[in-house]
């Protein structure tokens, strides 16, 4: 298995300044289908952005002014496309390095005419560090990040205090972070880490043990539906920047 601390996208940009110890992704095996490859060719120029350190001009990238939501690790893009479709008033900047996943979302965005999606095939940590300014985001979505089940691998989990503080600083006042996981120990760690960040407050109130009901905009995935039928839980957390 590729060590994520040293992994880069298959075609890393030549201007990446250095390798980080923490990445927002784990490279996965997978073959790009003919349809996904065609989507790169047909829809790539319309939806793909280049990683370019410096001030990111969201209005120019999307061709309009609208609330900006960062999506980190969208997998095969089904949930992202659904959310963009039911929230046309928002812009979604989507980070994923898995080539088939990017191709799948390009295909969905192109076929559905989702003009409020732009895709960066790059590590979201570096995008935050070098492209996005503080207080520039209205929301962040991280759905079903790798739980790294074994105890010795917990340090590799994405949701750690320094990264959460980084996300919080990039949110505008009132902006939100929405996390979801189907692994309860990771859900508890997420709740502890976000709850300890002074820039964030939990929207759950006194009920639900700190978790919130699934927001209407987040669809149930096939994997999630299968797990729910087997009695597995799914935990959503929504925190806001104070």
Topology:
Elements: H1 34-47, E1 48-49, H2 58-62, E2 68-72, H3 78-86, E3 91-95, H4 99-112, E4 117-120, H5 124-130, E5 137-143, H6 161-170, E6 171-181, H7 184-195, E7 200-202, H8 222-229, E8 235-241
The major β-sheet equals: 8 strands, mixed
Helix content: 25-40%
Indicate the CATH topology. Answer: Rossmann fold
**How many structural domains?**
1
- CATH H-level homologous superfamily name: Vaccinia Virus protein VP39
CATH class: Alpha Beta
Proportion of beta-strand residues: 15-25%
Rounded to an integer, what's the Rg over CA atoms? 17 Å
Can you walk through the features of this model?
With 242 residues, this protein is α/β, with parallel strands linked by helices. The protein has one domain: Vaccinia Virus protein VP39 (Rossmann fold), CATH 3.40.50. Helix content is 33%, strand content 18%. The chain contains eight helices and eight strands; from the N terminus they run αβαβαβαβαβαβαβαβ. It has an eight-stranded mixed β-sheet with strand order 1-4-3-2-5-6-8-7, sandwiched between helices. Helix 1 crosses helix 4 and helix 3 packs parallel to helix 4 (99-112). The model is unreliable at 1-22 and 25-29 (pLDDT under 50).
